[in-house]
Amino acid sequence: MTKTALITGITGQDGSYLAELLLEQKYDVYGLVRRLSTPNTTNITHIVDNIHLVEGDLMDQSSLDTAIQQCRPDEVYNLAAQSFVATSWQQPVLTGEVDALGALRVLEAIRRNKKDCRYYQASSSEMFGKVQETPQNEKTPFYPRSPYGVAKVYAYWATINYRESYEMFCANGILFNHESPRRGIEFVTRKITDAVARIDAGLQKDLRLGNLDAERDWGYAGDYVKAMWKMLQHDSSDDFVIATGEAHSVREFVDLAFKEVGLDYEDYVLVDPKFFRPAEVNFLMGDSSKARNILGWQPEVKFEDLVKMMMKADIERYARKR
Ligand code: NAP
Ligand code: G4F
User: Fold this and answer.
1) pLDDT class of 1 with cuts at 50, 70, 90
2) Facing residues of 54 across strands?
3) For atom 27 of ligand 2, which residue has the closest CA?
């Protein structure tokens, strides 16, 4: 029987890759989109004729109730969020409203309208923040360092609370950083590959960054959405860390990206205090052995290939523009 899925955040990086995956699996795919003065469907232009878009906002309970009543989903993937950590200090209340209470509103909409629906919560390695052990796994205590991280901890526990209070199928995917050519332009990886492509094309002179020594466990978004899907196919709901198990610094990323166009990053990169954060997460590296053993998931794309993939896409984009 055809399954129906509702994806919140379908216009984002992960939402677009997940929609592709579910279409390949023959799902009937619905995506929740919020009203914007200029619609932002760049990431889903290629599949927009094969999916159904429903209007709604994580700030608005009634729109979420209506969306669940309309779609009658078997699975809901709650990917919508104010997802940029730096902005969460500028807009802490909005971040809490969308990322914390927004998740609660989606859970409530499911409980009231389609309680047997399976729920995926986009939890984050940012919850580990000032890490209490390395590598981080499902049992590592949280120590969030940003309003974003704090909001995600709330949503994480709301997900577990609905599982335990109402016997609903609710899973947390604790995903470490994952990137792709569809990554938003303000995140450090995409900011770097876009800038290097622009420098290579003669459109930009330098690249201003913040903390070059921060280390992240970077994977490929296309690999990570497979883990989301696997979590909802499992026979019971549980929480899983999804990571590569390798940490690399921003400096390593920038070095490799400039090498792709035969340049030395030290000639172009300027450190700008504007991009430092009030409280930094210096290091993240995940242990995803639970997901590997129970779900049979593993990442395919290596760090070096991810940098190459993103560089290639941005170079081609500027070449097309020329
Ligand atoms: P993204 O590209 O920033 O996408 C966020 C999505 O949320 C967009 O579709 C956005 O819609 C939507 N959205 C924002 N506010 C909304 C609201 N009030 N109501 C409805 N939709 C709203 O994020 P992503 O990288 O794909 O990440 C997906 C999820 O995973 C997020 O929850 C993020 O916090 C979490 N996460 C990401 C990573 C990562 O490394 N990528 C790691 C761990 C967890 P518009 O297009 O209208 O702005
Ligand atoms: O790319 P970032 O902005 O990602 P961050 O803060 O790790 O958050 C991402 O991953 C989380 C999972 O751990 C997600 F939950 C979240 O939604 C998002 O997808 O920054 C990565 C690192 C930081 O340490 C930052 O301080 O890069 C450092 N950095 C150095 N210079 C910079 C810059 N980050 C940005 N965005 N811009 C810079 O110029």
Assistant:
1) confident
2) 32
3) 188
Contact 261, 196 (CB under 8 A): yes
Cα 107 to Cα 168: distance, rounded to the nearest angstrom: 9
Tokens representing 29 are 């795919």
Active-site annotation, residues:
124, 126, 148
| Domain boundaries, position 199 | 184-216+246-283+301-321
The model's pLDDT over 93-125, given as tens digits with 9 standing for 90+, comes to 999 999 999 999 999 999 999 999 999 999 999
Domain count, the chain: 2
| CA dihedral (19, 24, 29, 35) positive or negative | positive
**209 and 106 co-located in one domain:** no
Ligand 2 centre to CA of 98 (Å) is 19
Question: Averaged over 32-46, what is the pLDDT?
Answer: 95
Q: Cα of 117 to ligand 2 centre, how many Å? A: 33
Residues 259 and 166 in one domain: no
